[in-house]
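Section 3.1: Structural characterization of target chains.
Under the original work plan, the team committed to producing a structural model for every single-chain target entering the pipeline before any wet-lab resources were allocated. The record below documents one such target. The sequence was received from the expression subgroup and is listed exactly as submitted; it comprises 230 residues.
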Amino acid sequence: MLTVSNLAVAYGQSRIINDLSFSAKPMETVAIMGRNGMGKSTLMKSLMGVLRTVGGAVTIDGKDVTKLDSFDRVKAGLAYVPQGRQIFSSLSVEENIRTGLECVPGAKTIDTRIYDMFPVLKEMGKRKGGNLSGGQQQQLAIARALVSRPKVLLLDEPTEGIQPSIIKDLARQLNEIKKTWNVTIIVSEQVLSFALAIADRVLVIESGNLVHEDLRADIDEAKVAKYLSV
């Protein structure tokens, strides 16, 4: 469903991502782990087209999207939940969700599955997005991404700034989303327990290179934890 081939990303003359390759199957959840500054967010932004690549290719369901702008990648089936959520704080919850419909031709109504998954968003539909808690804002950002009917859902550091009890709920919701929406999920993360709760496969990135990979069933938790320690 997603194939990344020899991807390279640079800021000026500084290479951040180095000829990185991986793939994700339909309805697979892949966790990309690493410490701060190792290139996780740069990778996610480049997959979404927010950052331009200097080499390599990205395909979604067989379609090459490497040269497409972000909004065209959304039309091709890619959705993005950025680090820090970046919801529109002055818009209502419902208005925030509706912004995700803009890239779906002819779509005017919010999929009822959104409110089945996140009932608190229905209850708070008229409330300003900026008045929600961190966990509720994360749900809102995911809902906004899901209404574009993605094939691949990217989440960048979704547990950042969220209480441990809410993190468990988020893991459960993402597992349910994968089944309900038949979506492939790529998540960048530092919290190992969260990654293990959702991932079918774990990749570790260090200085822009993939340095470790394991199926969830085979993972050496101690080895991965060493990569994450400062």
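The domain at 2-83+150-228 is CATH 3.40.50.300 (Rossmann fold).
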